Structure formats: structure tokens, C-alpha cells
């Protein structure tokens, strides 16, 4: 069994992929802060299933809203993580429900979480290498 296939390492990799996908979703929310009728979305935390099981993928495609013919379609953000139905804190008169302060807090929280998981991943690999006799 390879080190990368251990349940703990697999769970940490799933969490890091979730953090990366969430950063893309949060960035799309900020990019559409002025788009009429755009509603912010977020991703649900992955269920790691106790012994390191991974989330059952549920394909989600998040598109950038275009309201006029001259708008660029942008890139579709595909993710295997589920979206979280958010209740908007406030909605502007044009129907936009993106709160920039809330999105910035989520982005900072996501970055801190990613750094913590990355640190755990590095330490886990180091402990495993030490246990098998290789220097970390």
C-alpha cells in the first residue's frame, strides 16, 4: 500500500481539494458582486466518513451569470462537492445577494483551514517516513 492511499492521508487530500474548490466558488461570488439577480453559493463540508472515507461525488457546475450579449461567458467551475443553499443576509434592489464582507471572511477562513490541513498532511507524511525508517 502506498503512503498516499492511507485513509488519513486520503481524507486530508479530500479536504485540501474541497478547500481549493471552495476558493473558486468564493472567488466567483466576489466577481459577481455587481451582477443583477446573482445569488452567492458555497460548498458543503465534505463528509470524511470516520475512517477517512471520501465524499460521494455529486457533480456541480457553477456558471458566471451573464446579463447582456457582450458579457464574456467565463469558465464553468466544476466541482465534485455539493453546494450549500445559503440564505442571503441582504439583497440589493437589483436582486444581487452577494455580501462582500461575508465572502471575504469565508475566504480568510478557507485559507486558514487549508494551511492547517496542509500542515497536518506534511506532518503525517513525516511521521510515516520516520516510522518506516526514512528521514523526514
From TrEMBL:
<comment type="function">
    <text>Structural component of flagellum, the bacterial motility apparatus. Part of the rod structure of flagellar basal body.</text>
</comment>
<keyword id="KW-0969">Cilium</keyword>
<comment type="subunit">
    <text>The basal body constitutes a major portion of the flagellar organelle and consists of a number of rings mounted on a central rod.</text>
</comment>
<dbReference type="GO" id="GO:0030694">
    <property type="term" value="C:bacterial-type flagellum basal body, rod"/>
</dbReference>
<dbReference type="Pfam" id="PF00460">
    <property type="entry name" value="Flg_bb_rod"/>
</dbReference>
<feature type="domain" description="Flagellar basal body rod protein N-terminal">
    <location>
        <begin position="19"/>
        <end position="39"/>
    </location>
</feature>
<dbReference type="GO" id="GO:0071973">
    <property type="term" value="P:bacterial-type flagellum-dependent cell motility"/>
</dbReference>
<dbReference type="InterPro" id="IPR001444">
    <property type="entry name" value="Flag_bb_rod_N"/>
</dbReference>
<keyword id="KW-0966">Cell projection</keyword>
<comment type="similarity">
    <text>Belongs to the flagella basal body rod proteins family.</text>
</comment>
<protein>
    <recommendedName>
        <fullName>Flagellar basal body rod protein FlgB</fullName>
    </recommendedName>
</protein>
<keyword id="KW-0282">Flagellum</keyword>
<dbReference type="InterPro" id="IPR006300">
    <property type="entry name" value="FlgB"/>
</dbReference>
<keyword id="KW-0975">Bacterial flagellum</keyword>
